[in-house]
């Protein structure tokens, strides 16, 4: 019997239980019926952040960014490209530090963009600075133990 994983819906934030061997079968949310993996970075807010970090059994990669940050904006297409490749192995998300200043301060985000990888509700790796799509994927997979 295959192990089931909890995956939080990117649309309605409902926790779904998915057999691990079915992650690549385009699973849908039991509540809202939308796809659990969109291949695009999920926009998180201060309110949604805790649910996605603590309730996903898959690793969660978060880009801490701001709309006025030149390096953040230049990395955005590479991050979106990485999301297409990393899902469903991990959830790929973005958090606007301008809109979520207290949350960013709570995680001691001192420079942006900063990538942080969460697993089991806790941060396991952090990387400041803009990166290419291939570097994002390699870094995230290495630190998540998916290589």
From TrEMBL:
InterPro entries with a match to the protein in the record: Thio2_N, Thioredoxin, Thioredoxin-like_sf, Thioredoxin_CS, Thioredoxin_domain
Name under which the protein is recorded: Thioredoxin
Family statement: Belongs to the thioredoxin family.
Entry keywords, A to Z: Disulfide bond, Electron transport, Metal-binding, Redox-active center, Transport
GO molecular function terms listed in the Swiss-Prot or TrEMBL record: metal ion binding; protein-disulfide reductase activity
Spans through the membrane: none
Originating organism: Pollutimonas nitritireducens
Residue span(s) of domain Thioredoxin: 12-145
Recorded coiled-coil stretches: none
Any single Pfam family the record assigns to this protein: Thioredoxin
GO biological process: cell redox homeostasis
GO cellular component: cytosol
NCBIfam families registered for this protein in UniProt: PRK10996.1, thioredoxin
């Amino acid at each position: 019997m295959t192990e089931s994983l909890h995956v939080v819906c990117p649309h309605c934030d409902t926790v779904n239980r998915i057999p691990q061997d079915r992650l690549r079968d385009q699973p849908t949310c039991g509540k809202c019926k939308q796809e659990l993996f969109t291949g695009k970075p999920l926009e998180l807010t201060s309110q949604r952040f805790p649910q996605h970090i603590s309730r996903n059994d898959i690793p969660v990669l978060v880009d801490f960014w701001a709309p006025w940050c030149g390096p953040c904006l230049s990395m955005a297409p590479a991050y979106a490209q990485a999301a297409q490749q990393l899902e469903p192995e991990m959830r790929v998300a973005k958090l606007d530090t301008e809109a979520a200043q207290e949350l960013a301060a709570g995680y001691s985000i001192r420079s942006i963009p900063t990538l942080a990888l969460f697993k089991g509700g806790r941060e396991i790796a952090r990387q400041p600075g803009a990166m290419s799509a291939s570097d994002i994927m390699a870094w995230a997979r290495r630190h998540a133990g998916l290589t």
